[in-house]
Design a protein that fits this description.
By secondary structure, the protein is α/β, with parallel strands linked by helices. The protein has one domain: NAD(P)-binding Rossmann-like Domain (Rossmann fold), CATH 3.40.50.720. 41% of the residues lie in helices and 18% in strands. It is built from eight helices and eleven strands. It has a seven-stranded parallel sheet with strand order 3-2-1-4-5-6-9, sandwiched between helices. A two-stranded parallel sheet has the order 7-8. It has a two-stranded antiparallel ribbon with strand order 10-11. Strand 10 and strand 11 form a beta hairpin. Helix 1 packs across helix 8. The chain is globular, with a radius of gyration of 18 Å. The protein binds NADP nicotinamide-adenine-dinucleotide phosphate (NAP). The site of NADP nicotinamide-adenine-dinucleotide phosphate has 32 residues, from helix 1, helix 4 and helix 6.
Length: 259
C-alpha cells in the first residue's frame, strides 16, 4: 500500500525557486502540511500562496540560509513549534557557482558551493533527525546530481560536493538502518531552472546556451520523482534515482538540434 501524504509534514529547503518550489506545490496537491525555507522570503511567500491554492493542509515559510548553523537551528526550532514530527525532509538547497578550472577557481565560489550543497545538507539533516527518528516510514530525499557521479571540466568543486552528497546519503542509510527512516538521493541531469543563471552570475545568454537545441528536464519532472519516492510503502526505500532528459545520454554526450 502506498503511503498517503495527506496531513503529513514536509520540509523543503531551497523552496523559493526551481525543484524546491515545484516540489512544494506537488506535495501541497497531496494535501500535506508544507514548511518551506530559503533566503529570499518574498519568493517563499509567493510559493506559499501557490501551495495554499494547490490544496496544502497548511503552509509555513521561514527565512533559511543553510550556510549558517545558527540560522538553520533557529529555523528548525521554529519548525518544532509547528509540529513534533516530520514525515518528509527534502534537502534541496544548493547549486553551482562558476565554471572555472581548478587553476582559475575563486575562493568565494568554492566556499558558497561547499557551504550550501555539502555543509548545509549536514546541518539541516542533523537538526531535523530528532523529529524523524521515532517515525518509521518517514523519508529524507537528498537532491544530488549527475555531477556527483561523473566529473566534468570546470565542475571540480560542484562535482565534489555532489559526490559528497552521495556518500553522506549512503552513510545516513547505514546509520538509520533499523529505525524505519528512509533516505535516498535524487540525482537530476540537465534541468532548466534558475540553476544556470546562478552559476553564470545572472548572464542570461550563457545560461540559455546550456539548454540550446534540446529539451531539458523541467522542475516538474523532479517534483514528480520526489512524490514517488515519498509515497512508496514503508518497507520500500528508494536509495537512488538518476534522471536525465532523453537528449542527454551522458555528461559529455548531448544531442542538440541547431539551425
Ligand atoms: N538544474 C539543474 O540542472 C540541476 C541538476 C542537478 C542537481 N541540481 C540541484 O538541485 C537543487 C535545486 O536547484 P535548482 O535547479 O532548482 O536551482 P534554482 O532554481 O537556482 O534553486 C535553488 C534553490 O536553492 C536555494 N538556495 C541556494 N543557496 C541556499 C542557501 N545558502 N540557503 C538556503 N537556500 C539556498 C535557492 O533559494 P534562495 O536563493 O532564495 O536562498 C533556491 O530556492 C540544487 O541542490 C542543485 O545543485 C540542479
Amino acid at each position: 500500500m502506498n503511503t498517503s501524504l495527506k496531513d503529513k509534514w514536509v520540509f523543503i529547503t531551497g523552496a523559493s525557486a526551481g525543484f524546491g518550489a515545484e516540489g512544494a506545490v506537488h506535495f501541497a496537491r497531496e494535501g500535506a502540511h508544507l514548511v518551506i525555507g530559503a533566503r529570499r522570503v518574498d519568493r517563499l511567500e509567493a510559493v506559499a500562496a501557490q501551495c495554499q491554492e494547490a490544496g496544502a493542509a497548511s503552509v509555513h515559510f521561514h527565512e533559511l540560509d543553510v550556510a549558517c548553523t545558527a540560522n538553520v537551528n533557529a529555523c528548525v526550532a521554529w519548525l518544532k513549534e509547528l509540529t513534533p514530527q516530520l514525515d518528509v525532509l527534502v534537502n534541496n538547497a544548493g547549486g553551482a557557482h562558476g565554471t572555472d578550472t581548478v587553476a582559475e577557481g575563486k575562493d568565494a565560489d568554492w566556499e558558497a558551493m561547499v557551504q550550501s550543497n555539502f555543509l548545509g545538507l549536514m546541518r539541516v539533516t542533523r537538526a531535523c533527525l530528532p523529529l524523524m527518528m521515532e517515525n518509521a516510514g518517514s523519508t529524507i530525499i537528498n537532491i544530488g546530481s549527475i555531477a556527483g557521479r561523473v566529473a566534468y571540466e570546470g565542475g571540480s568543486v560542484y562535482c565534489g560536493v555532489k559526490a559528497a552528497e552521495k556518500q553522506i546519503t549512503q552513510s545516513l542509510r547505514l546509520e538509520l538502518n533499523g529505525t524505519g527512516v528512509r533516505v535516498g538521493t535524487l540525482d537530476p541531469g540537465l534541468a532548466e531552472t534558475e540553476f544556470s543563471i546562478v552559476r553564470f552570475k545572472g548572464d542570461q545568454s550563457k545560461s540559455d546556451k546550456v539548454y540550446e537545441g534540446l529539451d531539458p528536464l523541467v522542475a516538474e519532472d523532479i517534483a514528480e520523482a520526489m512524490i514517488w519516492m515519498a509515497t512508496r510503502p514503508p518497507h520500500v526505500c528508494i536509495d537512488e534515482i538518476l534522471i536525465k532528459c532523453t537528449a542527454q545520454a551522458a555528461v559529455h554526450k548531448t544531442h542538440r538540434v541547431t539551425d
